């Protein structure tokens, strides 16, 4: 399908990745969990039917947990560096860098996504003028699909990582004239209870589920 997948990612460097999770698991374990989530997400995107795959990356991959695995999987992607001041501005630039086809953006906090879910969600973007937004249980969003990078400008007025980020994003898209289809609501991984709940939704041998169960076992 003529849709570009845009994965917005942060290198899972111990001490910098998943800092809220690190408060209970420690820096190394939290970075490993983040790396596992990112790798599972990248694999799901590769297994889906996207015409182009782009990763907008920030952070030092050389210091990342599971560096070798990440470098191997990222070889299947066009990797661009995130640029701009603040997360919203970096998202806007990432959409500009990935533009051409409609762009379906996903982060690295929902490793339970499958190729089937990505295909059914992103295929909506092949309808002329259609945008999509997938809300997260915590009030944010896990996916954003837009046909034109100009629509991403609406993110500049949306405070990120707030309980109403999703609702405000939807309002910003509507204000710019977007026709937005809703995607399934997913739970993203920020805290230990999120990790355990999301792990149960992942395939038994997925990196994230294995890492989460190992972490839970070592902490018991």
Structural account:
Helices cover 40% and strands 20% of the residues. The protein is α/β, with parallel strands linked by helices. Helix 2 runs antiparallel to helix 8. The mean pLDDT is 96.
Topology:
Layout: E1 4-10, H1 19-25, H2 27-47, E2 52-58, H3 67-74, E3 78-81, H4 87-98, E4 103-106, H5 115-122, E5 130-136, E6 141-146, H6 165-175, E7 179-186, H7 192-199, H8 207-219
Parallel strand pairs: 1-2, 1-4, 2-3, 5-7
Antiparallel strand pairs: 4-6, 5-6
Quick recap of the structure?
The chain contains 8 helices and 7 strands. The protein has helices at residues 19-25, 27-47, 67-74, 87-98, 115-122, 165-175, 192-199, 207-219, and strands at 4-10, 52-58, 78-81, 103-106, 130-136, 141-146, 179-186.
Described by strand count, sense and barrel closure, the largest sheet is: 7 strands, mixed
* Beta-strand fraction estimate: 15-25%
- Listing every helix as H and every strand as E from the N terminus to the C terminus, the arrangement reads EHHEHEHEHEEHEHH
Helix percentage range: 40-55%
- Shape, please? globular
Mean pLDDT: 96
| Cα radius of gyration in angstroms | 16 Å
The beta-strand count equals 7
Which runs of at least 5 residues are low in confidence (pLDDT < 50)?
A: none
Q: So what's the oligomer here?
A: single chain
């Amino acid at each position: 399908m003529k849709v570009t997948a845009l994965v917005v990612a942060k290198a899972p460097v111990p001490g910098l990745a998943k800092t809220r999770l690190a408060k209970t698991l420690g820096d190394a374990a939290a970075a490993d969990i983040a790396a596992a989530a990112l790798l599972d997400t990248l694999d799901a995107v590769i297994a889906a039917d996207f015409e182009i795959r782009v990763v907008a990356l920030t952070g030092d991959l050389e210091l990342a947990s599971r560096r070798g695995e990440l470098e191997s999987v990222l070889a299947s992607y066009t990797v661009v560096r995130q640029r701009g001041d603040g997360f919203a501005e970096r998202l806007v630039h990432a959409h500009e860098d990935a533009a051409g086809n409609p762009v379906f953006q996903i982060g690295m906090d929902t490793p339970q996504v499958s190729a089937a879910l990505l295909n059914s969600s992103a295929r909506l973007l092949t309808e002329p003028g259609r945008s999509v937004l997938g809300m997260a249980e915590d009030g944010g969003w896990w996916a954003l699909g837009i046909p034109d990078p100009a629509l991403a400008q609406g993110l500049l007025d949306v405070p990120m990582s707030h309980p109403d980020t999703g609702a405000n994003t939807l309002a910003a898209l509507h204000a710019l004239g977007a026709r937005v289809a809703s995607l399934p609501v997913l739970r993203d991984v920020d805290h230990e209870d999120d990790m355990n709940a999301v792990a149960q939704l992942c395939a038994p041998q997925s990196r994230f589920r294995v890492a989460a169960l190992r972490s839970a076992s070592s902490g018991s």
